Amino acid sequence: MAEFAYEPEPEVVLAPGESIQEISGKSPWRLAGRRLLRNRSAMASLAIFLAIVAVSFGAPIYSNYIAHTEWKSPNISGTTVVDGKRVEVIQQGGGKLGLGEIPIGPTWRTNYLVGADQQGRDVMARVLYGGRASLQIGIWSAVLCCAIALVLAMLAGFYRRWSDSVLSRTMDLIWAFPVYLLAISLATVLLTKPNGLQWGPIHVVSSSLWVPTVIIAVVYVPYVFRPVRGQVLSIREKEYVEAATAAGASNRRLMFSEILPNVLTTVIVMLPLMIATTVLTEAALSFLGIGVQEPQASWGTIIDDGQGLLYTRPLVAIVPGIMIVLVVLSLNVFGDGLRDALDPRAKVR
Amino acid sequence: MKRLVSFSAAAIFVIALAAGCGGSKKSTSSTSTTAAGGKGGTMLTLANTAPSGSPDPQVNYTLQEWQLLIFTHDGLVAFKRTGGTEGTKIVPDLAESIPTPTNGGKTWVFKLRPGIKFSNGQTLSGADVKATFERLFKIGNSPNAGSWYNVIVGGDACVKTPASCDLSKGVVVNGNTVTFHLTQGDPEFLDKLAVPFAFILPADTPTKNVDIPPPGTGPYKWAQYAPTKQIKLVRNPYFKVWSKDAQPAGNPDVIIQKFGLTPDAEVTQVQNGQADWMFDQVPAGRLNEISTKYADQVHINPLTQVEYMALNTRIPPFNNLKARQAVNYATDRNALVKIFGGPQLATPTCQILPPNFPGYEPYCPYTKNPGSGKWTAPDMQKAQQLVNESGTKGMAVKVNTTNIDPPKSYGLYFVGLLNKLGYKASLQPLSSSIQYPYVQNSKNKVQMGYSDWFQDYPAASDFLVILLGCGSFHPNSNSSPNIAAFCNKGIQAKMDQAGQTGITDPTAANQQWAQVDKEVTDQAPWVAMMNQKYVNFVSKRVKGFIFSPQWYFLLDQASVQ
Question: Is residue A76 part of a domain?
């Protein structure tokens, strides 16, 4: 017979500026939403992030109706009009020897706003299209990663014994590899498959955005699995779970009604931080040529394109760099705000 | 010679080849010189990495090491150590004269110059010559032993059982006279004797790969070979000039090549006078800068090389002649030249052989208004018509390149072009270290793959036979330089005929090679893109720059004093 242990209810903890009257009778989710809306820096960060998402997903409008420039196909022999004059997009180098070909620089007009890359493509249009790919990969891989980690952590933490041993050791194994090394190895193998990937009826071409998405999701699973599993193990021992068990609740009910709602907040708090991490990882992989495949663009591929132009056209690398910084910074600040809102007891900032 | 000059990694790789036959020694090149300086001092050169592969002179197959080996070692004959067309001329080196072959080109008798010493003090003898050629097979990994030197009687047996290699019947020594007996006439035999694989080493050199080139007979000797740090050459105290044409005395006392800097950092060091020359090509992003501020320190020289996209003639869509010709007509070669750095650095081409090369006659059918032999503009209308006729429209095409520029940019250009022509194209960029073996292997089914080719020596067969001969296609092998998997029986017969003609009549042979070049071009196994020029960037103190068409910048002939 298990020894009965009484644990008193923890004291109600208020977020800064809150009173008992304000929070009484309100659901935890509503309270969290309220706290989040009151956090100005978190809301400003969210606004910046959403603005970047909006302009990135509006890339076709910019390219087709505002700039009227090419973002994907090379335009090496092309021309454009600047201040009423027709000029070449790729111009011959200067000096005594006329060496090197230089893409047109920032026109500060709608066409070639921040200049062209070595292929004569509009960098601003590519940055917006690149944002679509980077954000799409970043968001999907973070969601996928958190979902996989949540399922595995629930199984490991709830059933314990052999399922916990197998899953935890597998995660340890993945964790043992440096993230980038593992991602690079997986990407190199998958990208060199002559006919893409074939799993039964599913065929994925090697240039598909799903290749980096899945790779990034997989390599980060242990990073979410660990804390969530720990929480599942802890919640499983709580009195209300024991009470539900004593009342004859099934395993499914215990998992979905008692444990899942309590670990979900942890996953939600981690999600924006994971998106920031996966956006950075995508940029790194694409910079190395093993993420998004040209002629598609991502911020990483554009920085790679700009590497060779650092001395002549530095904006090609700087602009996508700024976008990455803004996205990562805004997601980190927003993630902090979300954690404060969902868990006002957390002391660590 | 396959050379991959990476603008970021700047490594140079070269692969084992199958050699063909035919051709002659007529070629031209340009040279840039500045006033000669004095002797002495240390010339400091830079390279991103050490020459790839073993440093053994009978194994290493990189321009980077060959550029140094030519003034530490000698062969029986040599390419004249000078610039311009003269630099492709074969002159006697350790041999007193160039013999006239007898017995249908199968017997060559060389007489060694007396009194020549190795850098360890030993005197050169006929036994060293025989031992050198036996060692070439005995070490087991000399890339061209089985394809260039197996023509020596006993060579084939040596390829089969290297350890017991015996060339007593193929290389007969009688005092200072060395007689080579060949199994068949070889019009390129002298060329093969003039490259580092055939440089004479002391007979007691171990028959295994060495960590530093062994003693040679040139004006310098190898004092240090540290692959992660530097190569250091110092004067050979036993050297005396016996032929200025073949092996002149060098100017600097010490020549050092340091490794580890990026090409960008190398440019900065040369600009600052901290180094005298960079082996790697100047990165595209720095060209404008050196053109504007350091023009007097830049030397631009045309190369006998070609950049191309191979079209796999055995799998769709390019097993269709019209599809191959369509891509050729559609290609804007000026755009590709722009990607490389502009018209100052490359010239568009449609054909296999580079300009000023044996057998070269200007020919370009894939241009608007053909006839002049020069490419002028793409003909999209004709290209579109050919694609429609070919029935290949809508097919998927993967364009394989390295993942560094400019090849990656060429690939992107072709992806855009193929999509415009109605194909579904995508890019497959691979790391430089794996792309060349990958693209050669027919198992990988590469439909369109980037490559380039630099001459080993001036002979048309060095391009046409090696890159497009039936015998150069090896299915499922990483060493199959015929990337297009092209084999046309009629054209192959003409290649063989030109090779035979070359034994007795090099001029007539070159006319035959010119015809072969045109017929291959008509079959469009490649999109030949351009012939590049080489940018040498030297420090202010370097005087007497000479560019050899065979060995490029003759480092030892320049002065830093």
Answer: no
